[in-house]
Design goal:
Helix content: 10-25%
Structural class: alpha+beta
Order of helices and strands: HHHEEHHEEEEEEEEHEEHEEEEHHE
Radius of gyration: 23 Å
Number of strands: 17
Shape: globular
Strand content: 15-25%
Largest sheet: 5 strands, antiparallel
């Protein structure tokens, strides 16, 4: 820690928190030709910049100082100013927050504002469903699952907070009995079962022992945004053009057990493959790739560390109540595949 109320000048000691821009800058997206992924670009067949995906080109009337829409030029390269990302849960709780509820209920244009929030959540869901491809292959009792990252950064990206992505795998016999499960999620409690085979994509930050001693806090894994100074693990899938050396220099390398890990992804790798060994050969296999905006652990951390803990009017308690009352940030199905079944079954519960 530097002295209180003094600027921090040692840039060699800065901690990499969010690295989305660096992940993009070091990817194949940051090239003149870009990447051919038309599902992101609107009227563009290839995408390169952040704006290409998050402000896709649409057809519309160009701006003009004089005249009106009927006499203005129709363009096919208008960036849509929606800035769509992956957060499809928080927009659904904002209208219920006591500080903002009037904006979406009684104030002028409340209905339009609410419709805009809901539309944004729908766009975020579509963005998530375009961000990855899922392939599965079954040979006897061996199930091979491959996730391909179509985004221009890590998948998932941004500050780690409570966001996470995982594989949910279910296998059934000829009688419809469940013979194998990994990544089961209990919607009633917001609990993810961390079984031995769970493939969970996330990053974990922590507070080092020496800093923890200065702060009077426990060392180790932590959600403290401003206090974390170590990376424990980061297995998020890199984008096209990944290079370990370049990502490490930018503070965006994969990490395993507190160390930058050059073996987690090979240079150029923008996919990840997981092999599951099932107890017997199944008749039906269902695999889902799930993304969650806010985990139970993160929401409980914010509740328990909010000032005025247990006060129902504290921000932590308000957020926790909104989380409980709005599906507990239910996971979004980014992609799903099945073998031996055409109709998908519901989530496996604990």
């Amino acid at each position: 820690l530097n002295a209180m109320n003094e600027p921090f000048t040692d840039t060699s000691a800065l901690f990499p928190v969010e690295r989305t821009y660096s992940e993009w800058r070091l990817s194949d997206f940051n090239t003149p030709q870009g990447v051919a992924l038309p599902q992101f670009g609107g009227n563009k067949a290839t995408v390169s910049t952040c704006q290409d995906c998050h402000m896709r080109d649409v057809t519309g009337v160009g701006g003009a100082f004089f005249g009106n829409a009927s006499s203005s030029v129709v363009r096919n390269d208008l960036p849509l100013h929606d800035l769509t990302g992956a957060n499809n849960w928080v927009p659904t709780i904002i209208p219920q927050h006591p500080a903002f509820s009037a904006t979406f209920s009684t104030e002028p244009y409340a209905a339009e504002r609410l419709a805009a929030l809901n539309a944004g959540a729908d766009r975020a869901t579509a963005m998530l469903q375009n961000a990855a491809e899922l392939e599965i292959e079954l040979t006897g009792t061996q199930l091979v699952v491959t996730i391909t990252n179509n985004s221009g950064h890590k998948l998932p990206t941004g500050y780690i907070e409570g966001r996470r992505m995982w594989l949910q795998v279910e296998a059934y016999d000829a009688n419809g009995a469940l013979i194998y499960s990994s990544g089961a999620y209990d919607a009633a409690t917001g609990t993810l079962t961390e079984d031995a085979d769970l493939q969970l994509y996330e990053a974990k930050h922590s507070i080092s022992p020496d800093l923890a001693a200065q702060l009077g806090l426990p060392a180790g894994e932590s959600f403290h945004f401003l206090l974390n100074n170590e990376i424990l693990n980061d297995n998020r899938i890199p984008p096209r053009g990944y290079s370990f050396a370049a990502f490490e220099a930018a503070g965006a390398a994969p990490y395993t057990n507190g160390n930058a890990d050059p073996t987690r992804y090979a240079d150029g790798q923008y996919w990840d493959t997981t092999t599951y060994t099932l107890p017997t050969a199944p008749d039906v296999v269902i695999v889902r790739l799930l993304h969650q905006v806010a985990s139970r652990e993160y929401i409980e951390f914010l509740r328990d560390n909010s000032p005025f803990f247990s006060d129902p009017n504290s921000n932590g308690q308000i957020l926790y109540a909104l989380w409980e009352g709005n599906g507990r940030s239910a996971p979004t199905i980014m992609a799903q595949k099945a073998i031996g079944l055409e109709t998908y079954l519901p989530f496996v519960q604990q």
